[in-house]
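Q: Structure tokens for this one, please.
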Amino acid sequence: MSRAKLALWFIKSFGLELTELKARERQTGIVHSLSVDNTCIPADGTKGFDSLSSHDQKTVEQVLFLLDKFCVGDSFYHELTMIIDGLPKSYLVKQRRGQLNNISNVVPTPGKADGAQISFTDMLKSHVDEFIKLHDEVDWSKENVQVKISGDGAQMTRNSSFILLSFSLLQNQDDVMSASGNHTFAIVKGSESYETLQDSFGMIFQEINNLIQVGEITINNSRLNLEFFLEGDYKFLLIMMGMKAATSNFACVWCKIHKDNRWKMDKDLTHYNSIPIKRTLQEIINMAQKKDTQD
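A: Here is the predicted structure, written as tokens:
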């Protein structure tokens, strides 16, 4: 038995309970107060995050959110808890992160580039279920759930870039343009190119295509119709369509006008949306499957 345990046993034997311990540094005179909260220790002996009260658990989760949001390391936070009283212990934050990671089925993306992905279908079901519960006044048997698939490349440092895939529900007008309304389900570290998308996101795209082909999803024994949209900057759209850069000769996603003729204004808009100028879906599919596209 350690001296600390022996001292606590001695106090308890006289019917006393330790609630606070104060220590004073001899050289500086600084007083350190240590609070002992015995209420957070349940009768079943559970320790760690699960033994905390709901308020303390929420505090730990808020700290974890801020650490991940601003990329603060565990070592820094541990040192911070050593000099500032009242912060949740670092081991509680690590424990909660591990619990959240265990319930999130994150798997590496295929291909050579480093990346991670989660099940798009499971994530979609979760957010659609939450959304329709908040909007139960809508007859969802007659309405399509509109899902927007977004992609974008992000240059993090001079030598590293990432590609992110996310989705949002277009009917969620309050949050559709905010970070809380867009849900990332795949990320890969690599250049924004057709080869990277094909190698790293092939499984994700196949999963999305299966949902597009079926056109519905089942949640709580209820079938909901799905309608998909693709969104991204022009570079991402060109890559998705199997086309070259915006400076190429035929860089319009919707028509086959040459770049030297874009300035001409004598044609009506319907001219570019009619055969043979407009691009058909089959032409885009065929072009995307070719090894080398036209300029």
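A few notes: Residues 39-44 have pLDDT under 50 and may be disordered. The chain has nine helices and nine strands.
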